Amino acid sequence: MPKPKSRRSERSTPLNHGDVLSFRIPKNLSEEELAYLNKIKSNDSKMLSALFFDKIQEMVNHTPKITIPLPSDLSLEQYQALKDENAQKVLFQIVQQFVSSSSEDRTVEQPFNARTPLIQNNFLNNLKSGLYND
After folding, report:
1. Which end of the chain is less packed: N or C, by CB atoms within 10 Å?
2. Which of 38, 41, 128, 35 minimizes the C-alpha distance to 86?
3. Contact 79, 71 (CB under 8 A)
4. Any residues with CB less than 8 A from the CB of 126 and at least 6 apart, and which?
5. Do 131 and 91 touch, CB atoms closer than 8 A?
6. 48, 37 in Cβ contact below 8 A?
7. What is the pLDDT of residue 49?
8. Taking the mean position of all CA atoms in its chain, how far away is CA 97?
9. How many CA atoms lie within 13 A of 1 on its CB side?
10. Is pLDDT above 60 for 90?
11. Is the distance from CB of 126 to CB of 132 less than 8 angstroms?
12. pLDDT of residue 66
């Protein structure tokens, strides 16, 4: 007769894709947080796991992320250029310079949309010419 597994041995078993993961809701969770969890659970229970695993992924990557809206009229070529690894590095450098500059240096004198075509064209031309390659 096989020996039954103890709870302790179940905890030490590595997780695999598709395994069920359960945990207790902490007693120190506020009523507001509990109400929010119940709201999410009642709307879409998959949302809870998505929130949980998004946080896990964020912790693994150790990098904060933001979302920047793109113009809706981007061509496929422009979109693919932005997805390129070298383009991502350039964009990261631009953002890094922006956030490290003083607030006076960040003042935009004309609307961003008026400058966008020039920025797009110069960026795409430089990307195509290999200017941003390592």
Report:
1. N
2. 128
3. no
4. 132
5. no
6. yes
7. 83
8. 20
9. 1
10. yes
11. yes
12. 77
Average pLDDT, the chain: 75
**pLDDT, tens digit, 9 for 90 and up, residues 31-74:** 999 998 888 888 777 778 888 888 888 788 777 777 788 888 88
Dist. CA 117–CA 109, nearest whole Å: 16
The CA–CA distances, whole Å, from 132 to 29, 30, 74, 98, 122 equal 48, 49, 21, 18, 12
What contacts 24+ positions apart, CB below 8 Å, involve 80-87? Answer: 81/123, 81/124, 81/127, 81/128, 84/127, 86/127, 86/132, 86/133, 86/134, 87/123, 87/127, 87/132
Lookup: tokens for 47 = 């949302």
Q: Which residues of 26-45 are buried (b: 16+ CB within 10 A; e: fewer)?
A: eeeeeeeeeeeeeeeeeeee
In angstroms, the CA 56 to CA 51 distance is: 9
> What predicted TM-score, i.e. pTM, was given to this entire model?
0.37
Chain centroid, CA 38 distance in Å: 25
Q: 124 to each of 71, 83, 112, how far by Cα in Å?
A: 15, 12, 17
**Gap between the Cα atoms of 21 and 16, Å rounded:** 10
